[in-house]
Write a structure and sequence with these properties.
Pfam families: Ribonuc_P_40. Helix content is 24%, strand content 27%. It has 177 residues and is an alpha+beta fold.
Length: 177
């Protein structure tokens, strides 16, 4: 009856809105960035930072945590790993919504265009988060939400098109081979 048609119009309207990804851009000025070498995953003192240090730094940047290690900060005394360099301008783009793998590949290809002329970027990253309470993870396993619901992977792409792939899942989840 009337109740059913009202429900249908409600869901069709809201589903259409849910499928439109929300995009936000921000410019980060004078950002301290770790120095990376594509062929050096472990990092070297005074030469480059490790993959773990980069991953931690990315978390701080994405959550807009200050990197200046002020003792007066109640939130964080985190500072950028050494060695680092100050980048005058960095762009952070966040896309929230249901994004199919083909779109992620497309995004990666578009990001690689930044290595064309003028060659300003040494490396860039693309992080893909699954929803923390997603019912599935990789392989055949259910996704365990026990603590933080970690469920993400991160590409670090270098100017020479070498790349790193980092993955993080909860302790009870399967990881891809």
């Amino acid at each position: 009856g009337a109740e059913g048609s009202t429900l249908m119009s409600y869901f069709s309207k809201n589903q259409i809105q849910a499928l439109k990804p929300k995009i936000t851009f921000s410019t980060l000025r004078d950002l301290q960035c770790p120095v990376l070498q594509s062929n050096d995953l472990q990092g070297k003192p005074e030469e480059s930072c490790s993959t773990e240090e980069l991953f931690e730094w990315l978390g701080a940047v994405m959550n807009q945590v200050s990197l200046d290690n002020k003792s007066s900060s109640f939130l964080s005394t985190y500072c950028c790993p050494e060695p680092n360099t100050v980048v005058e301008k960095a762009f952070l783009c966040t896309i929230t919504g249901f994004i199919i793998p083909e779109k992620i590949i497309q995004l990666l290809e578009q990001l690689c265009c930044y290595f064309g002329e003028p060659k300003l970027a040494y490396w860039l990253t693309l992080t893909v988060h699954g929803f923390a309470d997603s019912p599935v993870s990789w392989r055949e396993s259910e996704h365990g939400f026990h603590k933080g619901g970690e469920n993400l992977y991160n590409f670090v792409i270098f100017r020479n098109l070498d790349y790193w792939l980092q993955m993080a899942v909860g302790a009870h989840d399967d990881c891809p081979p």
